[in-house]
């Protein structure tokens, strides 16, 4: 397999383009419905909590420093937008995880032009759901302590002049790394690679992983677009896997003559 010259953001765009593929459409429908309900609830909650929290923060500023209130709006608003996007991604992935494994598997078949026409039965989906939830719990065990640590650090830095500019950057880098892990875990799981092994493999592809995950994080903060970002990220992550992580798995290698057909 020849090394690709694609950069991280290109994989999300490729995932978006492949969502309408006739072999993938039906696997995308249910995640989209789940994401729609989640979007409505989380958006309402985020707007409400943002107004209250920002009002509390700005109330502590002396009147003679009113001119820096807009800085709080920009910095804290950007931080909460990242938190919103990241939270949306985590909850959406947890709820829709039973569909993302089969979506990644079918994407692999499209990429190799080796479509299996056998439909996925309800019993098979239930078995996949149990396995997917176990895998999601393993990931949550890795993510949650680090999320709390990053959140505490960025909130502490937000009260320190100059250093408060670093907080959103830390949150963004962590969010990008964790979302790369989240989505690349679906093709990894399909090929029996443990979550710990995936982390080790991605550390060797850190810049590419961060650019892919960071692009996904930014896209999840955009209302309505974020409904499509998660299934597109699963598809894009599967393409990423082929291009960067499949060298030691001969059965995954693509011929340069193979192109996904729509």
Structure, briefly:
This protein has 262 residues and is mainly α. 74% of the residues lie in helices and 0% in strands.
Helix content: over 70%
What is the count of DSSP helices, taking H or I runs of 4+ residues? 8
Low-confidence stretches: 248-262
The number of domains:
1
The average pLDDT score comes to 79
Outline the biggest β-sheet.
none
What is the general shape?
Answer: elongated
Structure classification: mainly alpha
Strand percentage lies at under 5%
How many E strands? 0
Radius of gyration: 20 Å
Helix-strand sequence: HHHHHHHH
Give the CA-CA distance, first to last residue: 22 Å
Description of the structure:
- The protein is mainly α and 262 residues long.
- 74% of the residues lie in helices and 0% in strands.
- The chain has one domain (8-249).
- The chain has helices at residues 8-18, 25-59, 69-111, 122-157, 166-190, 195-203, 206-220, 225-244.
- Helix 3 (69-111) packs antiparallel against helix 4 (122-157).
- It is elongated and about 70 Å long.
- It starts with 7 loop residues before the first helix and ends in an 18-residue tail after the last helix.
